[in-house]
Amino acid sequence: MGFFDFFSKKEKETLDKGLEKTKTGVFSKLAHIVAGRSKVDDDLLDDLEEVLITSDVGIETTLRIIERIQQRVARDKYLSSSELQGILREEIVALLTENSTTDGNGFDLPSDRNPYVIMVVGVNGVGKTTTIGKLAYQFKKSGKKVYLGAADTFRAAAVEQLDIWGERVGVPVIKQQMGSDPASVAFDTLSSAKANNADVVIIDTAGRLHNKIGLMNELSKIRRVMDKVVPGAPDEVLLVLDGSTGQNAFEQAKQFMAATEINALAVTKLDGTAKGGVVIGISDQFKIPVKYIGLGEGIEDLQPFNRKEFVESLFSEKN
Fold it and tell me: Model confidence over 70-100: pLDDT tens digits?
């Protein structure tokens, strides 16, 4: 069994509450298109396609979902409109499963990596530093020794914010003067973490995209330096995306994937938007695990992504 076979009541409530705006929008649209219809036909599927696209699922992913439902209708010969939401949930979960989009494994860490190194990337304003703070809280709560590295040395606000989170969570933050070499900060952080037998290290990085070549060079240098201190580091390159930006999140993902190798995603600010469908599209299109979703401002409102629970919450009838 996986981590979320034991999805707790509290986690379910946080998920439902965080997706309320998206859920309300999607459910009202679905209710509208099935009203007065007795079967799933081409006209209903056209309307469903519009619902998914306007919910920021994305065109490519929407077309795949519609195709799957068409195949289901052809196979089963007749499907009533009242069955549509159940079918929709099943086919989206199946699509994400077939595309090898794995669920997050909670806040567990591999036992054979000490320290486990996470490099966090993303444009300014997406909730990158806040996500780092919430991750640090969860890791520390599970008994891990955590170190943070303030390698976004170009913004004083980023360093200050990470410092505040470090104090709040009770974990050390390694930093240097503004304008210092980010790779040097990463070196100091990993060296200190190794010397103090830390379990996990999280490195913040600058979020500038106006110069992709400069960003690529900077991130590549940070990775090389990390590897010298902890061979194989970073274990995880976590791209943080703002879910409230909808389709812009897709573009940000594409640009960062062009600049460095990404192997995990976090989608934040889902509680403040009706664009939560973007998580489905991102999960499907990039074939990179959405590992965490941000569902509120509270310190525990960062949750490991589970495709089944997410889809169930998004498309089930409101109580």
Answer: 998 888 876 777 788 888 889 888 888 876 5
From 104, 124, 54, 110, select the one nearest 293 (Cα to Cα): 104
CB 125 within 8 A of CB 152: no
Segment 134-148, tens digit of pLDDT: 999 999 999 999 999
- DSSP track, the chain: --GGGG--HHHHHHHHHHTHHHHHHHHHHHHHHHTT--S--HHHHHHHHHHHHHTT--HHHHHHHHHHHHHHHHHHS---GGGHHHHHHHHHHHHHHHTT-PPP-TT---TT-SSEEEEEE--TTSSHHHHHHHHHHHHHHTT--EEEEE--TT-HHHHHHHHHHHHHHT--EE---TT--HHHHHHHHHHHHHHTT-SEEEEE-----S-HHHHHHHHHHHHHHHHHHSTT--SEEEEEEEGGGTHHHHHHHHHHHHHS---EEEEE-GGG-S-TTHHHHHHHHH-S-EEEEE-SSSTT-EEE--HHHHHHHHHSPP-
